[in-house]
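Weekly sync notes, structure subgroup
Attendees: PM, AL, DS (notes)

Item 1: joint prediction request from the bench team. They want all two components modeled as one assembly rather than separately. Inputs as received:
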Amino acid sequence: MVQAHVQLMPMRAALAGLLLLLGACSVRPVMPPEPLPPVEVADTSPAASLLAAADSARARNEYSAAGRYLERALSVSQSGEATVLYRKLAELRLEEDKPRAAEGLALRALREAPDHPQWQAELWTLVAEARDRQGDEAGRDAARDNAERLQQEP
Amino acid sequence: MPKNVSSSFFSRGLLIKATLVFLVLLLVGLAWLDALVRSRFDSHQWQLPARVYARPVELYNGRVLDMAHIDRLVALMRYREEAGASTPGSWAREGNTVLLHTRGFRDSDGGEPPRRIRLRISNGRVAGLASADGAAVPVARLEPMQIGSIHPGHSQDRILVRLAQTPPELVEMLLAVEDRQFYEHHGISFRGLARATLANLRAGGLRQGGSTLTQQLVKNFWLTRDRTLSRKLLEIPMALLLELHYEKPQILETYLNEVYLGQDGARAIHGMGLAAQFYFGRPLEELEAHHYALLVGMLKGPGLYDPRRRPERARARRDLVLRASHAEGVISEAALERALARPLEVVPRTGGALYAFPAFIDLVRRQLARDYPPAVLSSDGLIIHSTLDVLAQLAAEDALAKALETRDPGGASALTGAVVMTAPDQGDVLAVVGDRRARSTGFNRALDAVRPIGSLAKPAVVQAALEQPRRYHLAQHVMDEPFEVPLAHGQVWAPKNFDDKSQGAIPMLDALAHSRNQGMASLGMEVGLDKVIATLRRLGVQRRIPAYPSILLGSLELSPFEVAVMYQPLATGGFRTPLRSITDVLDLGGEPMARYPVSADPVLDQDAAFLTQWSMIQVMREGTGRGLLGVLPADIVVAGKTGTSDGFRDAWFAGFSGNHLAVVWVGRDDNQSAGVTGSNAALPIWGQVMASVPQRSLRETAPPGVEWVWMDADGVRTSGEGCRDARRYPMMTASIPQESTSCGERRDNDEGVRGWFRRMFN
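Output from the run, pasted for the record:
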């Protein structure tokens, strides 16, 4: 079974390439896919005002305050909001030059992410940057590949 | 004559010499005293213990909060009921609306100013939040309750109050009673001394000291408390020197913070700020004339006029101070009458939040001791924001106490227990209960009762197996049948099931859900002890794990807190977030000093972790946790695991929702059989604890590497929906068998281009 799987990979990849090529050459009118609504915290959510406060603290370089706001937002968050808040925390850590912490939080944001390719691609890009700043080139490339693949999804 | 002359000259010379020597000695003595006074006063650092605060209660629309919660909070925070709630620390109720006037506080994010907020409660939730003028408020915080102070090395405690913040009326009363000439004298008051002497003569004994505030401060500050002549001799020059070097306001402020006002066990109550909290449960600035009068009256003898032990004497003394203050023009006639009519209003020593949660403070103390030297903790006046959720803590205490009281009335069987509750998203420790009598400061079972965890270890076995997706999946059958493992010295390990029966080949999922010992042990042996141990390590177990097969069934011994650590990655789908009891440390001025930020480290294969978590959801739906049905709202998805140690000594339940994790242990300190099981003793407590806090469901959405697959009864081939004995499992893509039954559609999910893409790249 392991063998079979390994041999399948190049075949599948070739097939995928062919399919993409065919897709590009197709004469059939392509309907632009309905864009997914953005992943965000609703204005009415209690987390929203804390998130806004965190953003302005961050703009003033007050990282402690921004972190505290974001953690408070996490503690009052509703389901579906955690991915936004972990991403914000990851971005904050990156700004604070703590790429290792940023990577973990970005991955955590991915774990909570909805089925939203664009959002996930952005998170993988964040992971890639955090890995790059740690000197983890292989990890960075893997994360970038994930991001690129997701960006190609409808 | 010459002899005479010489003798007279000699004696005069001697006298001069003696006088000179005396003067020199006096000067040296004074210089020494001066240095003593100045060095001590200049370098004086208040011994300010670190103060630990609970997590501030966050108020926002939709938050679970009912009137009973409000009642509990205002009582703990010593808010007084007052129409209109016009001053900080007061509240009012109008039907289902509550007006709260908060006190404000400092925090790393700046904190909150005192403000009036209007809170509408409906169906056990906050249904409206606005400022008193009607503007909508998205989120507001009540000031955090102080739950403890940390003062290793000494037992002084105080709340520093600046003179500018001290109510003028209090200062005026103090001067009216203790030192009317304070602003005129230079350290000692002859008029005061004369008056005192006269009064003492009249009374026929020593009643009044006649000491100025400066002298009293010298006594408190530099000298021992016993009344000796040498002390009296030093007191006067030192008071004079003090006045020479320092301004009146400095001396007064120091006095107000230094003065001794009572004893709370080993803790000495120093200063007006702490005395206000200790006797009235409120900050100094919220007090009124009759409170000030009591504090001023107690200066004369805090033990003698202790309002808790000698209320009548204390009241008489207070009234005396009030009348003297009126005579001196400090308060009006009307104010005097109003104040005299008021009772003492002293709060009980217990019943507040301070020192009410010893098990949690114990945890804070351990975390602080790692990061701060004792000297800093005992003197720098640090403000420690902890993670304690007072409402969750009280609910956990109640749930444990009630359940154990039902099972073991009066503690006749010596049954006890512990609870730890956390918020896995942030790693916050919300509640720690270390005893069925939660106020007890004895053995902290939550941190220190290290007991066999029983079946709580089984999810680690499942996780270790699933991390080899080409070999294992949840549908796969494991052998629930007797088997033996030879050990060293000719011993044999032969695991038995709880019901002494064996079910034969059953899916791994069922072996976990029904906690089948033989099934899980045989799986663990096949996966390998080394892999299971490595998984336990990644879950955060730091103790030595002996490589015995019995660890598969939980011979491993952990404390409830360590179990909470171990279950954290299971609750978050594979991330380790260190548990923290502290979030922020601020300095005395309220400036941020340190943060303990949230972190997340991926420690488990996330797809496998999703499956493990999902299988623990099935424990609650159809396995050993199903007894909980009806305790939590039906739509809340939770997961967990029961644990019972050999001989029914330890009953465990560890489980989590989307936002809370709780671990419950029930057993006996002497490690004798307690006749308890995870299902019958620990699970009901867990349910009560979890029902007391707002819950969010676990996500059942599969991560990208997991698909939903119908499997045949043998767990060998994929099947179709509706086929005979087919069951649906989440499965890592690499685990999905190629072989399929001929019945129905092969996969019911993840169809289309995206699924195809996913499968292609996995």
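Discussion: Chain B has four domains: 50-143, 151-341, 428-691, 706-761.
Action: AL to compare against the crosslinking data before next sync.
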